[in-house]
Write a structure and sequence with these properties.
Blueprint (H helix, E strand, L loop, with lengths): L1 H31 L7 E4 L3 E5 L8 E6 L3 E8 L2 E5 L5 E5 L3 E3 L3 E5 L3 E5 L8 E6 L3 E8 L2 E5 L5 E5 L3 E3 L45 H6 L8 E6 L16 H18 L3 E4 L9 H10 L4 E8 L9 E5 L2 H19 L3 E6 L3 H4 L5 E8 L6 H4 L2 H20 L1
Parallel strand pairs: 15-16, 15-17, 17-20, 18-19
Antiparallel strand pairs: 1-4, 1-7, 2-3, 4-5, 5-6, 8-11, 8-14, 9-10, 11-12, 12-13, 18-20
Helix pairs in contact: 3-8, 5-8
């Protein structure tokens, strides 16, 4: 009887010791695999791979994009498991996620464009009336990703909304609409007025002092060849989040094309879709069309992840260096990225080009400092403005 009691006491002590050892272990496991079903996150990369498991080598099952907001199911190390709109679940790197803001705001414009992407060049998906209360999920480079009570969601210019601190402002129901002759604006000039100036769609680049001084005359009639690097079977470099260089170069060149055409230039694209164009043919397009300028767009990559910044290249110093330096200087001023300078390089699209030409590397996809910036649509707009101003400098001389 006494022996049995002693054994029972010994067993209790052993179990107590085991429990003390196991509890911290279980707590650490719960921290690693913590369920956070109530939290929401927003994507900060232009395109982010969704993988089957929390592993960089796992299969890619989907992609999500800048401003997309998702419920987090669980976390595992540097990965979050999210629930997609199709009820599919997958894992994404949380380096490119931020907690969803979900802040209330009020529309202060007579009528405010809702855009598909955070860009003045993006298509409209609807508009919001003055006084509409919206929920902001994310802010990015002067834009806010939001959802309205009607269900319409997209990006609006932050200058035309005011965050609701009191929560007492009345909400006005709004509905998505096709383009109409209503007052549509992205910039806040007269938010509560019906004066005629509010009827104008304002592009902030029109307010640039240098544009006013130089005008657009230097670009009128100029033949400018834009060369989006890579394409088709040639992906170019690939970023941390799986974006191919060929995609970014094409998107960048298209925005530059729009800006230059508005200034009266005749723009020729070496490719306008995901097509492979041989290097010799790219230079030949400039030669055959007697181009006044040829610009090849690329994004860089390095084995050293600490290397970051913008550089551009020339082949014939007397023919190319002015164009290269003018464009590089203005792009650096607008983007504020690290200036790696202008360099000579024996590149085919420059070597075989009889026209003034340059190849610009717009940041490193291999750099965690550059990549989140250069993959944003706002960055491509800044590049386009820099190229535009650089060409104004070049043709004004």
């Amino acid at each position: 009887m006494i022996t049995t009691k002693i054994k029972n006491k010994s067993l209790i002590k052993v179990l107590a010791i085991i429990s003390v050892a196991i509890v911290p272990f279980l707590q650490s496991q719960n921290a690693t695999y913590a369920h956070t079903s109530s939290s929401q996150v927003t994507v900060t990369a232009s395109s982010l791979n969704v993988r089957e498991a929390a592993d960089i080598s796992s299969s890619i099952i989907n992609h999500v994009h800048l401003g997309d907001t998702f419920e987090v199911i669980q976390k595992r190390n540097n990965w979050d498991q999210i629930k997609l709109s199709s009820n599919q679940t997958g894992w994404v790197s949380n380096a490119y996620l931020t907690p969803a803001e979900n802040k209330e705001a009020i529309v202060e414009a007579p009528s405010l464009n809702v855009r598909a992407k955070p860009s003045l060049f993006s298509s409209d998906v609807g508009y919001l009336k003055f006084g509409t209360k919206i929920t902001i999920q994310m802010e990015h480079d002067g834009w806010a990703k939001m959802v309205a009570p009607s269900g319409v969601s997209g990006w609006v210019n932050k200058d035309y909304i005011t965050k609701d601190k009191s929560g007492n402002q009345p909400a006005i129901s709004s509905s998505p609409s096709q383009k109409t002759t209503s007052v549509i604006t992205d910039k806040k000039s007269l938010p509560k007025s019906t004066e005629s100036s509010a009827n104008q769609s304002i592009d902030k680049t029109a307010q640039n002092t240098k544009n006013v001084q130089n005008g657009q005359e230097p670009l009128k009639g100029k033949i400018i060849v834009l060369d989006p690097g890579h394409g088709g079977k040639d992906n170019g470099a690939t970023s941390y989040v799986g974006t191919h260089e060929k995609t970014l170069t094409l998107e960048t060149a298209k925005i530059v094309e729009q800006k230059l055409e508005k200034a009266g230039a005749n723009v020729i694209m070496t490719r306008s879709d995901d097509t492979f164009i041989p290097l010799e043919q790219r230079a030949a397009i400039a030669n055959q069309n007697h181009a006044d300028a040829f610009i090849s767009f690329h994004y860089n990559c390095s084995n050293d992840p600490s290397v970051h910044g913008i550089t551009d290249f020339y082949y014939n110093k007397s023919k190319d260096s002015d164009l290269a330096s003018d464009i590089l200087n203005e792009v650096i001023k607008i983007t504020n990225l690290n200036n790696l300078g202008m360099r000579f390089d024996n590149l085919s699209v420059l070597r075989n080009n009889l026209r003034p030409s340059t190849l610009i590397e717009l940041g490193f996809l291999s750099s965690k400092q550059d990549d989140p910036i250069v993959e944003s649509s706002a960055y491509r707009e800044e590049v386009a403005q820099g190229v535009y101003l650089g060409l104004l400098d070049y043709f004004s001389k």
